[in-house]
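During the first year of the project, the team set up a workflow for recording each protein of interest as an amino acid sequence followed immediately by a discrete structure-token representation. This format lets reviewers and collaborators read both layers of information side by side without switching files. As required by the reporting guidelines, we include two representative entries from the current panel. The first entry is reproduced here exactly as it appears in our internal archive.
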Amino acid sequence: MRRAVTIGLSVLWGLLALAQGRATWLETTHDFGTFHEQDGKVTCIMRVVNTGDSSLLITRVRSSCGCTATEYTRAPLQPGDTGCVKLTYNPKSRPGEFSKDVHVFTNGQPARSMLTIKGNVIPCPSTVDDEYPVAVGSLRLNGATLPLGEVVRPQGRMAYLSGYNASTDTMVVTTARAPRHIVPKAVPDTVPPGALTTLTLFYDSKQAPLWGLNVDSLLVMAEPLGDNPTALSGFTQIDVMALVQEDFSRMTSQEREQAPKVVMDGNERINFDPVERGATMRQQFVIKNGGKSPLLVRRLWTGSNGITASIDRNEIKRGKKATVTIEVNTAVYREPILNASLTVMTNDPDQPSFNIRLVGEIKDPQP
């Protein structure tokens, strides 16, 4: 008799051990769609049914970031009962697409469940203006200039601009008039409402037309995809600036010994005689090659209107000289004092570029 009771209690305890709650979710994902930041917080409710044979308790809920607040049923759910988890997303200062996970822990099976909310936030107009100030129709860009800095030939350089579709229509992004050494691409080129795109630019220094400063431009265009759009099409110019330099880093010591060498003989400053406005100021200076191989003058350039420079030969043999002529058109150069510089670029590995100061006085006619 005692043995039978013991066996019965063991079976009962085994059945009780097997009895547990089971969380069956009616929803595990909620898409809020596209909504405006100024509309404020958005909320959804996801329901869970206890399909087990014992009570089910939600012990805790953990969100993946502070932007998502949670509330949940705290009372035990008896078999067949329904509970819920309430999720509230705060879009403030969070423009663009989002996807957030929330983990729900219970004393039943499964011990952990994952819920997901997602959507697209169209930011407030002030936020768009601050972060994406350049309008391309209804598409916005975070800038219209790309200063790449120094780019060593023959290396390339990638550059990026971020774009945002501030409309309720899908926008198509294209480019035009890019020079051959700049390869642009929008990724993606079809941008849903409230979504982001990236304008990537590959700068190929081997194809750049000039040594030193190169200033180029291309067009970025955007237009709505639909037949009856509410968004606006448009275009804007993007300016790209790069300083193309020669790569001397792999030269051996023997190659440097055989390299050309710039000798200026103290001509780091050119003084022009005073002239009346309308006249042409003209001066010359000499560049000598003190090295062992030909000196190549890559480029002469200034950033000032009205100043031109030319050289009588671009290749200067060992021990030879070349003459640089500088002319200032005072009818174009409008300042009364000439204070400018001329940049000379060469293949001298120790002095690939150097500046010559240009100073002088321009007298305006007396009334």
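The second entry, processed by the same pipeline in the following quarter, appears below.
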Amino acid sequence: MKLQPADTGPQAFLNALSAAQQTQLFALGAQPRHTPPAGWLPWLCDDMPLGWLSGERASWLAQQLPDCSLLPDALVWHATHAESSLRSEQLQSALMAARDQGLLTGWRNERFSFWHTDCSAADPQRPALFNVERSGFRWLGMLSHAVHVNGFTADGWLWCGRRALNKATDPGMLDNVTAGGLPSGETAQTCLQRELAEEAGLFHLEGHRLQDAGVVRTARLEPQGWHDEAVQVYNLTFGNNFAPVNQDGEVAEFVCLNPQQVLDKMQGGEFTVDAVQTLIQGLRVTGLRYCA
């Protein structure tokens, strides 16, 4: 028998909170996108916006990229005429130089795709403007894509992963049960399946309930630079008393929290910002279609 959204998972989570507590929770996601700091410059590929840079970083990049002009109000890379592969390698070379000079840390040796600043939904079938090292996206303030999963028990508790202490970003913080960036060449669905297997030890969805919860766009200043990300959100209600088990070393532990504990820890700053936004996005669409 098909489980009904009103009876299980995310709806059960909401039902366990009072109206006042729900208001407090949703207030945590009131401003997912911030404004870049004063004095930061937009950078563009001719007239296409790419991201946001500090003045110092814009000056550095202007010296590294061919056909790049630093103007009083913007950094402009004259490269729309070039092939995607050439743009990719030119920008990748600049990022490698930043890494070698100690300016760019957390190198992952994995590429992300950039389509457009308005491209909230990743589209691997559409040619990317370029594909470059993922750690360079925050460093250059460019839009990246990710897949995050809210993992619920049937009675509305939430499985959360604690990020390993050696993670380049947000070490030791509580996160979604699965959270991963979208590498070049992957779809959201293949990324979802891979991350669930690697991070949570879930190798198939049979017996579980998956809900497409849409996309939430977040943007804010981080130590590495300007973080701009479109997160594809899924709600996953585990069946068969499943408990996640990490496979790749990126999760220090999993904890299962009741809704009140989740709210308390989110208000206390123990969760990553994106995990908070992901949960709130998932709860906003509770009761919509299931996709598995």
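For the second entry, the following points were noted during internal review. The longest strand covers residues 209-222. The domain at 41-142 is CATH 3.30.750.160 (Transcription Regulator spoIIAA). Both points are flagged for discussion at the upcoming steering committee meeting.
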